[in-house]
Design brief:
Order of helices and strands: EHHEEHHHEEH
Number of helices: 6
CATH architecture: 2-Layer Sandwich
Radius of gyration: 24 Å
Shape: globular
Helix content: 40-55%
Strand content: 15-25%
Structural class: alpha+beta
Largest sheet: 5 strands, antiparallel
Number of strands: 5
CATH topology: Gyrase A, domain 2
CATH class: Alpha Beta
């Protein structure tokens, strides 16, 4: 059967918090409309077997759910169109992100096996270390390796 989550957090947002979020977060289009109707957030995680994350966002009414789900899926799919992303652990992980509407809630969920979760953590660590490496070690090597010569090949034998 399905393993229950090990960590769960739920927050019903009071009006003051929702107002503060709306004032500080500049979200375009559908995302901005959704912020106007935000009511509560819930997140759960399971880490004992791989990594499973679920985020549930509740709105005042269901009118924002379908457009928000559609836009979130479009954003996910646009990221997956990047061929470089597909070469990293982020590609397979993003393909496993499910975005669903359930009444007045949007649910985002991902369930990764242990191997993919480890690769994703390693990728995140490398990305976080990269700016630090750039500051410490200036790049001296050429970005082009083994560039072909533009000169015609020589027909003379090398000198002994």
């Amino acid at each position: 059967g399905e393993t229950p989550p090990e960590v769960v957090a739920v927050a019903v947002l009071p009006e003051g918090w929702r107002r503060a979020i709306r004032e500080r977060v500049q979200a375009p289009g559908v995302f901005g409309e959704a912020l106007e109707k935000l009511r509560a957030l819930a997140a759960s995680a399971r880490v004992s077997r791989g990594l499973a994350l679920s985020v549930r966002v509740r709105f005042e009414d269901a009118s924002v759910v379908e457009p928000l789900v559609e836009q979130a899926r479009l954003q996910r799919d646009a990221l997956l169109d990047d061929p470089l992303l597909g070469l990293t652990a982020a590609g397979p992980a993003l393909r496993r992100v499910a975005v669903e509407g359930q009444g007045s809630e949007v649910v985002l969920a991902v369930d990764l096996d242990e191997s993919l979760a480890e690769r994703l953590v390693e990728l995140a660590q490398r990305m976080l270390q990269r700016p630090e490496r750039r500051r410490r070690r200036p790049r001296t090597e050429s970005p082009v390796l083994d560039a072909p010569s533009t000169e015609a090949p020589s027909t003379e034998a090398p000198a002994p």
